C-alpha cells in the first residue's frame, strides 16, 4: 500500500512552495492590459497578451477584480497564476467558434507548462447551457461535424472550463467553477497537481464530470465540494504505453452526482495504483458512491478508502473487471473501511436539472455491494471492514426473478459499459460477489427495511474468502448466504 503519511507531507510541502512563490511574485491587475469587466466586451486577445507578457517577465499573478470578464480560449503559460478576487467572474464566450479546437477544447488551456495556478475566491462560469445549444446549431448548419449521438453533440466539440496536459506543479485553489458545456476540468498526464478548497457547481448539460484525472502522478484533491451531472471525481487511464494514474489522495470532499460519486476506469487502458480516499461524503447520487473498474486491459491496485459516508444513493460499492477493448484487466489489493450507506428507495437524483436515465424499469434495487470479475480473471485481495449499509428491500420477484438455482443465467457482459445497473437483476439484496478470491469482510452490518425475496449474500465462483462478524437484519428470517461453485469460504 502507498506510504500515505509521506505522500501527505509531500503535498503539504508543495502547497507551501506554491504559496511562497505566489507571495514573492508580482501582481498585474487585469485593467493594466485593457481587459474590460462589463461582461460584454470579448477580452480573449487582451487576456492572452497579459498572460504572455507576465510569462516573458519571469512570472507573476494576473489579478481580476470585481466584474465579469468575457473571453474565449486562453492559454496559461509557465510561472503565471490567474487570480480571481471576490466578485470576479471569468465568463466563457457564447460562440463556440471562440474556443480553440485542437483535440479537446476548453476555456483555459495549458499544455506542457510548469508552475501554473488558478487561485482566488472568484468564479469561472462557462455559460455551458447556451454554449452547448449554440454548438447544436452549428452542427445542424453543417459548420461543425459531429456524430450527434443521443441527440446531443459529443464532448470534444463542447468546451470544458479547464484542460491541462503534460504540466508540472499545478495549483487550483479556492475558485468556484460553474456551468461547463462538457467535463468541467481535465488534467491529463500532469505531475504534482493540487486541487484544494474548490467548489464545482456544474449541472448545465450532459457529461459534466466534476473533475477528470487522466494518467497523472502525485495528485491531491482536498477540502472541496462537487455537484455535477456526470461522475463527480473520475480517474481515467488513456495511455497503454506507460503513463498511469498513481499516487492520488482525495480527502475531505463532499459529492453529489447524477452518475457516480468517485469512479475509476471509464477508460482504463493503462493503470491505477496507490490511491487514498479519506473522509468522503456522498449524497443524492444516482449510481455508485465508489466505483472501481478495470475494463480495458489495464490494472487497478493498491486503493484504500476510509471513512466514507453515503446518504440517498442508488448504490454503494462497485468493483468490476471487464473486457471492452481487450482482456487481461487486473483488479486487486483494495482496502475499504468505515463506511455507512443508506440506499435510496426511489430515484436518488430526482428533481435535479439533468437526472440519470431511467434504465430497464421497473427493476429491483440492486445489492449495494457488487464485486464482479470475469471467468479466469478474478478480483483478488479485497477487504471491507466496519461497513454498515441500510437497504430499502421490497424486491419484487415478478420483475425478473433470478433464482439461486439459475445463477449461470446472470450475464457476464464483459464488453458492456461498466455500471452496476447493467446486470439489471441480481439474486442478492445485500452483497453479490462473482469471480473473486481472497475476499475478507469483517464487522459488516446489512439491514433490509422491507421483506425481500432475495438472499442477503450470494457468492458465485468465490474462493479462499472469509466473512467474519456479519450481521444481517431483515423482516423475514432466512438463510443469510448462498454459495455457488465456491470453495474455502468461512462465514461467521
Please explain how this structure is put together.
The chain has 4 helices and 31 strands. The protein is mainly β and 492 residues long. Strand 27, helix 4 (397-400) and strand 28 (428-450) form a beta-alpha-beta unit. The mean pLDDT is 94.
Question: What brief labels describe this structure?
Answer:
mainly beta; five-stranded parallel barrel; about 50% strand
Low-confidence stretches: none
The overall strand count is 31
Fraction of residues in helices?
10-25%
Q: Major sheet: size, sense and barrel closure?
A: 5 strands, parallel, barrel
Task: Give the neighbour order of strands across the main sheet.
Answer: 24-25-27-28-26
Shape: elongated
State the end-to-end distance.
Answer: 28 Å
Mean pLDDT: 94
SS-based class: mainly beta
Q: Count of DSSP helices?
A: 4
**Into which percentage range does the β-strand content fall?**
over 45%
Radius of gyration: 24 Å
Amino acid at each position: 500500500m502507498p506510504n500515505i503519511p509521506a505522500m501527505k507531507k509531500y503535498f503539504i510541502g508543495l502547497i507551501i512552495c506554491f504559496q511562497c512563490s505566489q507571495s514573492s511574485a508580482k501582481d498585474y491587475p487585469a485593467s493594466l492590459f485593457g481587459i474590460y469587466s462589463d461582461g460584454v466586451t470579448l477580452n480573449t486577445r487582451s487576456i492572452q497578451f497579459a498572460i504572455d507578457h507576465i510569462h516573458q517577465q519571469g512570472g507573476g499573478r494576473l489579478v481580476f477584480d470585481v466584474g465579469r470578464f468575457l473571453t474565449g480560449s486562453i492559454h496559461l503559460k509557465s510561472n503565471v497564476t490567474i487570480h480571481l478576487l471576490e466578485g470576479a467572474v471569468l465568463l466563457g464566450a457564447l460562440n463556440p467558434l471562440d474556443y480553440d479546437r485542437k483535440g479537446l477544447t476548453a476555456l483555459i488551456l495549458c499544455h506542457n507548462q510548469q508552475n501554473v495556478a488558478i487561485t482566488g475566491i472568484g468564479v469561472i462560469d462557462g455559460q455551458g447551457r447556451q454554449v452547448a445549444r449554440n454548438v447544436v446549431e452549428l452542427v445542424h448548419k453543417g459548420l461543425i461535424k459531429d456524430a450527434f449521438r443521443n441527440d446531443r453533440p459529443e464532448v470534444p466539440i463542447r468546451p470544458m472550463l479547464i484542460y491541462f496536459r503534460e504540466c508540472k506543479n499545478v495549483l487550483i485553489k479556492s475558485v468556484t467553477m460553474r456551468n461547463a458545456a462538457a467535463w468541467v476540468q481535465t488534467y491529463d498526464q500532469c505531475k504534482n497537481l493540487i486541487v484544494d478548497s474548490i467548489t464545482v457547481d456544474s449541472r448545465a448539460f450532459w457529461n459534466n464530470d466534476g473533475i477528470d484525472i487522466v494518467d497523472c502522478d502525485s495528485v491531491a484533491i482536498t477540502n472541496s465540494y462537487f455537484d455535477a451531472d456526470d461522475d463527480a471525481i473520475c480517474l481515467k487511464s488513456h495511455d497503454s504505453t506507460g503513463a498511469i494514474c498513481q499516487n492520488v489522495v482525495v480527502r475531505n470532499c463532499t459529492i453529489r452526482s447524477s452518475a457516480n460519486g468517485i469512479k475509476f476506469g471509464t477508460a482504463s487502458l493503462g493503470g491505477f495504483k496507490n490511491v487514498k480516499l479519506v473522509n468522503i461524503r456522498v449524497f443524492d447520487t444516482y449510481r455508485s458512491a465508489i466505483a472501481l473498474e478495470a475494463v480495458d486491459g489495464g490494472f487497478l491496485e493498491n486503493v484504500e478508502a476510509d471513512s466514507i459516508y453515503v446518504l440517498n444513493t442508488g448504490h454503494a460499492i462497485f468493483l468490476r473487471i471487464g473486457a471492452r477493448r481487450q482482456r487481461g484487466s487486473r483488479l486487486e489489493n483494495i482496502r475499504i473501511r468505515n463506511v455507512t450507506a443508506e440506499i435510496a428507495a426511489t430515484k436518488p437524483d430526482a428533481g435535479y436539472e439533468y437526472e440519470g436515465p431511467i434504465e430497464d424499469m421497473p427493476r429491483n434495487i440492486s445489492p449495494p455491494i457488487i464485486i464482479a470479475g470475469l471467468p479466469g480473471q478474478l478480483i483478488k485481495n479485497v477487504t471491507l471492514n466496519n461497513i454498515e449499509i441500510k437497504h430499502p428491500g421490497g424486491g419484487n420477484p415478478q420483475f425478473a426473478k433470478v433464482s439461486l438455482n439459475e445463477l449461470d443465467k446472470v450475464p457476464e457482459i464483459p464488453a458492456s459499459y461498466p455500471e452496476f445497473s447493467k446486470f439489471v437483476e441480481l439474486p442478492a439484496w445485500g452483497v453479490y460477489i462473482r469471480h473473486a478470491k481472497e475476499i475478507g469482510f469483517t464487522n459488516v452490518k446489512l439491514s433490509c427495511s422491507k421483506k425481500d425475496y432475495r438472499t442477503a449474500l450470494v457468492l458465485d465462483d468465490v474462493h479462499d474468502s472469509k466473512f467474519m462478524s456479519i450481521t444481517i437484519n431483515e423482516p423475514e428470517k432466512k438463510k443469510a448466504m448462498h454459495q455457488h461453485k465456491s470453495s474455502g469460504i468461512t462465514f461467521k
